[in-house]
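Blinded run. Sample ID left blank on purpose so nobody reads anything into the name before looking at the predicted structure. Input follows.
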Amino acid sequence: MARPYQLYVDQTYKFVSDVVRGCARVLEVGCGRGDVARLLGREGISVTAIDLKLVDSRPSPGVKFVEADFLRFEDAPFDAVIFTSSLHHIHPLQAAIDRAHRLLAPGGTLVAEEFDLDAPRPLTARWYYDMQELLAAADLYPAERVDPPSNDDPRMRWLDAHVHTPPLATGRQMLTAIASRFAIRDTTRCPYLFRYLCNGLPDDERGGKIAAHVLMTEQRRITSAALDAVGLRIVAMSQ
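Blinded prediction complete.
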């Protein structure tokens, strides 16, 4: 049984690896701990993994870690540029898309594993906060990670918890910016709220079982249209 953090790393890796398999050079933007980059490197892909502040730069076969600002990053052309839950943070958004286009070889692929800030309607936000509060009541989730209530309006509670300077990009904004420089090949909506809960669950087998159940429940409710899919996956080709 995968631990909570590994569960969502595996979800990202499965998506990304299917898209970039066969690429020789890949750039991952916002690599975090570097787990996705390391998994791709084991497949024989040459990966450059960048972040504004590297958390873990331990050497790994096929991976070069670079602490850098993506908007100023220069290198030889890549076959694919991957944003792993990072594009919504980069400002200005259009500058990030322009930089990705510049760093890609002709016909290269842009891959974004993201979330859509605007996606959760009140029922979806309520389900998420019910899960947070239930797990916190069971001492399985830190109480300080539970978002403060906002006048009993779960959607406003969600939006208030995501106030950021500069503002986070929404799904629509990311799609519009990407479409200005790339041909969008595919967009997919998928579970994402489980990832927030994974970050607070116990980092052990018990936490992994809970995380897997939350993921399964979120996916089942999305399939039955009882929840909005907050995850957004985008694949686009340079023109």
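Unblinding after everyone has recorded impressions. The chain has a mean pLDDT of 96.
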